[in-house]
Design a protein that fits this description.
Distance between the termini of chain B: 37 Å
Order of helices and strands of chain B: EEEEEEEEEEE
Largest sheet of chain A: 6 strands, mixed
Order of helices and strands of chain A: EEEEEEEEEEE
Low-confidence stretches of chain A: none
Structural class of chain B: mainly beta
Largest sheet of chain B: 7 strands, mixed
Oligomer: heterodimer
Mean pLDDT of chain A: 93
Strand content of chain B: over 45%
Number of helices of chain B: 0
Number of strands of chain B: 11
Strand content of chain A: over 45%
Radius of gyration of chain A: 13 Å
Chain lengths: 111, 118
């Protein structure tokens, strides 16, 4: 099956700093989503981005499908950004709901 | 819109008992829902696909007799952990297609149910 690798595994920032999270995948994808899992476990969908670039406030994401990677940018980080960020994909020919998740990036933002 | 509700949020049970977790789509109909499991400090792993009106499809290595899935209506899927043991303690999360963005399906996740088996 498809492999999804995220980096870095852990990231510690001071409030106000910028960061870039990376997601590499081993095969072509039909669906790629970025999620934020808060400390209570709730998964929040950040972006649906199988290709191209999107922005939502301080967050933006870019997926280069031909090179099989996606990037999540967080600018002017806040303590509420802390949590785990997951990249998840659906590879070609697979049911749309069968997401394969990366191992996540644990982000800690200090005041 | 596109809200998925799970209940209970937390459950503690004794070893050998069964526990039922509900997943509801509140403002949309979901013919298909998905159940994931997440162990502490690990990623999410798909357990099974729940299909309304038919049998669930289980991923390799998931015991269908232990994790009973019922999808009796277009808004409700249930996961029953039968004869639970401490190794079944985990965070169980359901998802369903909540939005169609640019013609594609975007999954919405419930808040999860944390099971602790003593």
């Amino acid at each position: 099956g498809i492999q999804v690798e995220q980096s870095p595994p852990d990231l510690i920032l001071q409030e106000g700093a910028n960061s870039t999270l990376r997601c590499n995948f081993s095969d072509s994808v039909n669906n790629l989503q970025w999620f934020h899992q808060n400390p209570w476990g709730q998964l929040i969908n950040l972006f649906y981005i199988p290709s191209g670039t999107k922005q939502n406030g301080r967050l933006s994401a870019t997926t280069v499908a031909t090179e099989r990677y996606s990037l999540l940018y967080i600018s002017s980080s806040q303590t509420t950004d802390s949590g785990v960020y997951f990249c998840a994909v659906v590879s070609g020919g697979t049911s749309y709901g069968k997401l394969t998740f990366g191992q996540g990036t644990i982000l800690t933002v200090h005041p | 819109g596109a809200v998925v509700s799970q209940h209970p949020s937390w459950v503690i049970c004794k070893s050998g008992t069964s526990v039922k977790i509900e997943c509801r789509s509140l403002d949309f109909q979901a013919t298909t829902m998905f159940w994931y499991r997440q162990f502490p400090k690990q990623s999410l792993m798909l357990m099974a696909t729940s299909n309304e009106g038919s049998k669930a499809t289980y991923e390799q290595g998931v015991e269908k007799d232990k994790f009973l899935i019922n999808h009796a209506s277009l808004t409700l899927s249930t996961l029953t952990v039968t004869s639970a043991h401490p190794e079944d303690s985990s965070f169980y999360i359901c998802s369903a297609r909540g939005q169609v963005v640019a013609g594609a399906n975007v999954l919405t996740f419930g808040a999860g149910s944390r099971l602790t088996v003593l």
